[in-house]
Task: structure prediction
Amino acid sequence: MKEKINWKFTLILCIVGFVLALQYNSLNTEPARDTRDLWAIRKELSKEKKIHSELLEEIREVDQTLSSYTALTNESTEEVLQHTLDKLYTQAGFMPTTGPGFVIEVAPSPESIAFGYELKPVSTELLSWFINVVNQHQGNELEIDGKRFTTLSWIRDINGKLTVSGEVVSTPPFKIKIVSATLEDSVKLYNHLLSTTIQDEFYLDDFILTISKPTENVALQGWTGGFENRYLKEQTKEQ
Result:
């Protein structure tokens, strides 16, 4: 009987000790410290401030649009609506545009030509990766081999041919045009591309990239893929 009581007493002590150990560890565990240096934190803060500034600019534009609608008269309604529509078409890439940017030529490498390798199109994976690198800097517009690339565009391999929104991209050489919001943004993207391994990645697939220096005027064609309206209905005029 005495041994049975000792066994129960020992079990209770073990449970109490385990609970006390857990409580002690929870009280003495320090929160994870931010080990980033000052410059890394400042860089992150700069990104957040830039996003905040962009959001404020979008809010300001929306407020201006609402103010213009509030002040509408029958004579100015059509003009304001047309201005808004043109602006949306431009933002979506449906309209031709000209702005600061640079041109990239994609061409076969000299070795592939010298050894008589069969010319092949750029792979969908490589082009998609290139676009992702460019999109790390917001506000850029692209034209790939004369085909405007927008948020509605897609990249596919169709019967062994690279296509952008169903249009076949030429086997290199062809050009990629990039337009940024400002010349400063264009220079930043230009330097970013030069600092990445993007030229090496293309070279591994027997292509070379020739990146021209940014200029003030680079022209892009408008989107030619059309637009499918699924939800908006035209309001008929009341008689």
